[in-house]
Design a protein that fits this description.
The protein is of the alpha/beta class. The longest helix has 11 residues.
């Protein structure tokens, strides 16, 4: 595991894990950040290599073709079982492959999780089940993809100011990796899910939050990007102000896209739907008075 002495903080570094079409990377590059981006989908990675070739050549962008495992037990460390089952501190697990499920209907759903990557095109309607005679293969393609880990990426590139995580299930292996770093990213942006771990975020020192509705007009003005991150992210109710963990957890419990009861969703009408949760670390919080 990464020791406390590793992972130096870099003020102009940002991570975009879940590159997709590269729009968030483009926004971060335009703000002067050096970006490390990660994309497991081979088609999206290949398109990104071509589209952002200049940024890659001049060193402003590292676009990695690899994935982050969903299961924390696959988070790579410097100590892995060898062929005899004993821990070998010199074993290098880089290059190990896992099955990646490329969704045929929505590339953004592609994942190392079969349940996520093989969603049917009617996943968000009442007809979520496979139709009679329809096979999982109709929804996804299985491809072997090299996995890496946040532990190794943090050790190699350092601790970023902003870390955006949207990798359909692998976000929390990254957050657990931060338990072993001396510094933490000032801002972490994670797509809201039913399993968002507020307890872990608090343990890691994140004390301020914004619930950023991805369908809100002010966000859609930024095209297909996730919108500004960090201090300039726009909370669905408080605008540029931050909220505490209890407040954001309350919004999460009543506004998530997975909440279906109208009487619950009515509590925070401007927050309903798909959202990102922006978290600010306590060290960064002391620098601002918003």
């Amino acid at each position: 595991q990464l020791h406390k002495t590793h992972g130096e903080f870099h003020r102009h570094l940002a991570f975009d894990f879940g590159f997709f079409n590269g729009d968030d990377t483009r926004l971060l590059l335009s703000q002067g950040y050096r970006v490390v981006a990660l994309e497991a989908n081979p088609l999206l990675w290949s398109k990104g290599q071509e589209k952002y070739s200049n940024a890659i050549k001049d060193g402003r962008l590292h676009l990695l073709h690899a994935g982050l495992p969903v299961d924390a037990s696959n988070e790579l460390s410097h100590e892995q079982p060898n062929a005899e089952g004993r821990k070998d501190s010199h074993a290098s697990p880089e290059g190990r492959n896992l099955t990646f499920y490329v969704n045929r209907h929505n590339a953004e759903w592609s994942s190392f999780s079969r349940g996520t990557g093989c969603r049917g095109q009617n996943y968000f309607s009442s007809d979520k089940d496979l139709k009679v005679g329809q096979k999982v293969g109709d929804n996804c393609e299985e491809v072997p993809i090299r996995i890496t880990s946040c532990t190794q990426l943090l050790a190699k590139f350092g601790i970023p100011v902003i870390m955006k995580l949207d990798v359909e299930g692998g976000e929390w292996t990254c957050m657990h990796a931060l338990k072993h770093t001396r510094h933490r990213p000032s801002y972490v942006v994670i797509e809201n899910t039913v399993s968002y771990d507020f307890d872990l975020m608090t343990e890691l020192g994140y004390d301020s939050f914004k619930y950023v509705n991805q369908g809100f007009p002010s966000v859609s003005d930024w095209g297909s990007t996730s919108g500004p991150m960090g201090e300039y992210g726009l909370d669905c109710e408080l605008k540029w102000k931050w909220r505490g963990v209890e407040s954001v957890a309350n919004v999460h419990d009543s506004s998530s896209a997975f909440v279906k009861k109208p009487e619950i969703r009515a509590k925070h009408p401007t927050c309903n739907g798909w959202a990102d949760i922006h978290a600010r670390h306590e060290v960064a919080s002391k620098m601002f008075f918003l």
